[in-house]
Amino acid sequence: MAERVLVIGSGGREHALAWKLAQSPHVKHVFVAPGNAGTADNGKISNSAVLVSNHTIVIQFCKDHNIGLVLVGPEALLAAGIVDDLRAAGVRCFGPCARAAQLASNSSSSKAFLDRHGIPTARWKAFSNPQEACSTDFPARVVRARGPAARKEVTIAASKEEACRAVQEIMQ
């Protein structure tokens, strides 16, 4: 195990990872970037202000602080290729490459992948404009905005009218 670890993220998942890593006798220190109130100056754990959206800065931080392992939580960063960039720079990193992260971060990509490989999944259709979505005779009643930031916004509609209202709110 690495003596110094960087956990990237600010949520409960990253807090739990940092907490558990800090319990290991093989880990001297856990940095969490950007972290949260629970990971700020907590014994072997501390937050870091390193700009995680800039992969070059993260790589330099890892080299400057002798980071032996990086764990990445946020899907958006995984989909943006942070693991690919860290590995290319010789930094040990746990997480999927950008291509694999698309399965979790982009529902349209994952549904297309499932269809392409004959893996059973619910019927689905993606739309780029609200009029097309509302005029289709597709019987879907689940509406979800696309993109990592919108993953948790889901409407389960009781009628086509309710689904169209949700589509209008999301897309306009």
UniProtKB/TrEMBL annotation:
<dbReference type="InterPro" id="IPR000115">
    <property type="entry name" value="PRibGlycinamide_synth"/>
</dbReference>
<feature type="domain" description="Phosphoribosylglycinamide synthetase ATP-grasp (A)">
    <location>
        <begin position="109"/>
        <end position="172"/>
    </location>
</feature>
<dbReference type="Pfam" id="PF02844">
    <property type="entry name" value="GARS_N"/>
</dbReference>
<keyword id="KW-0464">Manganese</keyword>
<dbReference type="InterPro" id="IPR020562">
    <property type="entry name" value="PRibGlycinamide_synth_N"/>
</dbReference>
<dbReference type="GO" id="GO:0005524">
    <property type="term" value="F:ATP binding"/>
</dbReference>
<dbReference type="Pfam" id="PF01071">
    <property type="entry name" value="GARS_A"/>
</dbReference>
<keyword id="KW-0479">Metal-binding</keyword>
<dbReference type="GO" id="GO:0004637">
    <property type="term" value="F:phosphoribosylamine-glycine ligase activity"/>
</dbReference>
<feature type="domain" description="Phosphoribosylglycinamide synthetase N-terminal">
    <location>
        <begin position="4"/>
        <end position="103"/>
    </location>
</feature>
<protein>
    <submittedName>
        <fullName>PUR2 protein</fullName>
    </submittedName>
</protein>
<dbReference type="InterPro" id="IPR013815">
    <property type="entry name" value="ATP_grasp_subdomain_1"/>
</dbReference>
<dbReference type="InterPro" id="IPR020561">
    <property type="entry name" value="PRibGlycinamid_synth_ATP-grasp"/>
</dbReference>
<dbReference type="GO" id="GO:0046872">
    <property type="term" value="F:metal ion binding"/>
</dbReference>
<dbReference type="GO" id="GO:0009113">
    <property type="term" value="P:purine nucleobase biosynthetic process"/>
</dbReference>
<keyword id="KW-0067">ATP-binding</keyword>
<dbReference type="InterPro" id="IPR016185">
    <property type="entry name" value="PreATP-grasp_dom_sf"/>
</dbReference>
<keyword id="KW-0547">Nucleotide-binding</keyword>
<keyword id="KW-0658">Purine biosynthesis</keyword>
<keyword id="KW-0436">Ligase</keyword>
<dbReference type="GO" id="GO:0006164">
    <property type="term" value="P:purine nucleotide biosynthetic process"/>
</dbReference>
